[in-house]
Amino acid sequence: MYSERVMDHFNNPRNMGEVEDYNAEGTVGNAKCGDIMRITMRIEDEVIQDVKFKTFGCGAAVATSSMATELVKGKPVEEALKLTNSAVVEALEGLPPVKVHCSVLAEEAVKAAIEDYRKRTQ
């Protein structure tokens, strides 16, 4: 049902927790399934220096959060804004169709954190 990569990110999530002294935070949820994702970032000179997540949800929600943080860490903000849920699914080597919404939440959480950063720095 799940790829080895999904199981690896579920069993050994990367970047779990909260960034100390974060200057960007995004929290999103899906009322239908109950998943909630919170991503914190420290952005300096328009580059994501650190990123961490806390997720309340199923294994796919944890895995997509973990993968999304891996995909944007160290990247310029403009590049991170181009992250798509499809890229998260592809990096995880697929998700069951009923779990694709988790990748959408991961994309939305990254973008919400960057939007928060922009509001804070304007």
Quick overview:
By secondary structure, this protein is an alpha+beta fold. The chain has one domain: Alpha-Beta Complex (Sufe protein. Chain: A), CATH 3.90.1010.
Residue-averaged pLDDT, rounded? 96
Provide the structure class: alpha+beta
Give the tally of structural domains: 1
How many strand units? Answer: 3
Q: What distance lies between the first and last C-alpha atoms, to the nearest angstrom? A: 45 Å
Low-confidence stretches: none
| Main sheet strand line-up | 1-2-3
Question: How does this structure look, described?
Answer:
There is one protein chain. The chain has about 120 residues and is of the alpha+beta class. The protein has one domain: Sufe protein. Chain: A (Alpha-Beta Complex), CATH 3.90.1010. The protein is built from five helices and three strands. A three-stranded antiparallel β-sheet has the order 1-2-3. A hairpin with a 6-residue loop joins strand 1 and strand 2.
How do the helices and strands line up, and which of them pair or pack?
Elements: H1 4-11, E1 24-29, E2 36-44, E3 47-56, H2 59-72, H3 77-80, H4 85-91, H5 100-121
Antiparallel strand pairs: 1-2, 2-3
Descriptors:
Sufe protein. Chain: A, alpha+beta, 20% strand, single chain, 5 helices, 3 strands, globular, three-stranded antiparallel β-sheet, 122 residues
